[in-house]
Amino acid sequence: MIEVEKKFLLDEAAKKRLIEGAEFISKKEMHDEYFDDENYSLTTNDIWLRCRDGRFELKDPLQNQKSDNRFFNRYEELESNDEICARLNIPSSDSMREDLEKAGYKPFSKYVTTRTKYKKDGFTIDLDITDFDYGVNEIELLVEREDEMDEAIKRIKDFAKKHQLTLQSIRGKLPEYLKRNNPDHHQALVDAEII
After folding, report:
1. Which range of residues forms the domain containing residue 10?
2. What is the number of helices (H) and of strands (E) in the chain?
3. How far apart (Å, rounded) are the C-alpha atoms in residues 181 and 108?
4. What is the CATH number for 18?
5. How far apart are CA 138 and CA 148, in angstroms?
6. Structure letter (DSSP) for residue 45
7. Half-sphere exposure in the Cβ direction for 158 (13 Å, CA)
8. How far apart are CA 32 and CA 45, in angstroms?
9. CA quadruple 12, 14, 15, 20: dihedral positive or negative?
10. How far is Cα 48 from Cα 96, in angstroms, rounded to an integer?
11. How far, in Å, are 1, 12, 38, 127, 152 from residue 15 at the CA level?
């Protein structure tokens, strides 16, 4: 599946408008640990490798995201260890953590997010708050094919307009974490025009 999402910072009034009439899905804590090598070769290429609650995931960008639709993130999500190792071109064994360590990938951030999830009009709405006191909210659609991404972006824009949300560039949880805790890595992402 391909994830198309837009992040928003919401005040209480906007949040209320957004979730009014929405179906509550869940509230849970997520423990995220992100990995990269010492040269930041993944993150400076907009590739995000994490272990969330014990399961590894890799978000690999689709198309050139430095376009007029840069406000919208479009990633292929890989969730099996074999797929991730193949994409990273590293050998796969029974221990993903060991495979990554042997290939030079190490954790560079670790934090907990409380996520409240809703569904509304076919959209997934995630309201997140981290243990380092940063909140970000996402409106997301999943599509099966790349040729469906532009329509998904249009639908998200229309949904946001309907709910009086402002389209602007928002720093995600991980870039905010890096800005606060690892300025060198954050600057590398700025220099690579990832954030």
Report:
1. 2-191
2. 6, 8
3. 10
4. 2.40.320.10
5. 19
6. G
7. 10
8. 20
9. positive
10. 15
11. 27, 5, 39, 9, 21
Q: State the residue for tokens 């993903």.
A: 96
The count of domains in the chain is 1
What are the tokens at 94? Answer: 């029974």
- Exposure string (b/e) for 87-113, b if CB count within 10 Å is 16 or more? ebebeeeeebeebbeeeebeebbebeb
Q: pLDDT tens track of the chain, all 195 residues?
A: 788 889 988 888 888 999 999 999 999 999 999 999 999 999 999 999 999 999 999 999 876 544 444 556 678 889 999 999 999 999 999 899 999 999 999 999 999 999 999 999 999 999 999 999 998 999 999 998 889 988 999 999 999 999 998 888 888 899 999 999 999 999 999 999 988
Query: Residue type at 131?
Result: D
Q: Which residue is listed with tokens 């796969």?
A: 92
